[in-house]
Design a protein that fits this description.
40% of the residues lie in helices and 25% in strands. By secondary structure, the protein is α/β, with parallel strands linked by helices. The strands form 3 sheets. Strands 3, 4, 5, 8, 9, 10, 11, 12, 13 and 14 form a 10-stranded mixed beta sheet that branches. InterPro entries: HTH-type_LysR_regulators (IPR050950), LysR_HTH_N (IPR000847), LysR_subst-bd (IPR005119), WH-like_DNA-bd_sf (IPR036388), WH_DNA-bd_sf (IPR036390).
Length: 309
Amino acid sequence: MNIRHLEFFCHLAKTQHMSQTAAYFGISQPTLSYAISTLEKELGVPLFEKSGRNIKLTHLGKIYLQFIESGLDKIKRGDLLLKRLLNVETGTINLGFTYTLGQSLVPKIINHFLSPSENQQLKFNFSQGNTEQLLTKLLDEKCDLALASFADQIGQTSTKDLLTFYPLVKQEIVAAVPVNHPLALKNSVSLREITDYPLIYFSKDSGLRPIIDKFFKKDNLKPNIKFELEEDQTIAGFVSQELGIALLPNLPLLNQNSIKLLHISQPIIYHQLYLVLKNNYFQTPAVSKFQNFIVNYCQTNFNQLNRLI
């Protein structure tokens, strides 16, 4: 069905005058008559009937008009939305990131990105979660890009041919201890020293669990796990109540009146974070612009300076 013919139909329904409608679209009356006749043949019903020297809608034509006007309006709004999304200065960016990145890195990136006047009309939709949740949203195209850990599988599905992981920045893993804990007298500790105390540990649903496990295994150490939790702020809460110590990403906004953060010196533990993209996913100009900005920002402020976040 020809959308142009539907536009002719809607306008003719309002004017009820062939010559006026033909003039409005800059076409001849025979061309308009042919278009309406073609539409009626496709539908198998008459849409107009003569009324003196003019025409008017039939009963079925009135019913059809309600749906076509609504449909054409949605098509126009869809066209406008696509044009807006494809505008590098007015598009929308759907960004997913892990909870820990919301304390410092992501707010700083957003602040610097939106500073130039040409970026200030861009809109963001944010999603937070653990790595598996974010990668699932990426595959479902609910996110344009995600900042998360590496994962070779989501459930039973391999990510190898579905997602691309670009190393972005390294996040320091620190020891969190209560302020009156024996280790609180130090500024740094070794991984071996940590095994002497009960640990509040990341659960297996966390993207950090396999990373921390790897460091213990590499040094032939076994963590003394007391509790397992998924979210770092919750783990910090347990530490503050002296229920154990923990290994956490460096959280700059963590209240250190009840918790002290210690560097881990032997070995230095870090968490590699990635910019994750879905393969063969169309990126709008705004998303591509933001992706390039993230990479350049992290390269300039962290990687070139050998800094951890």
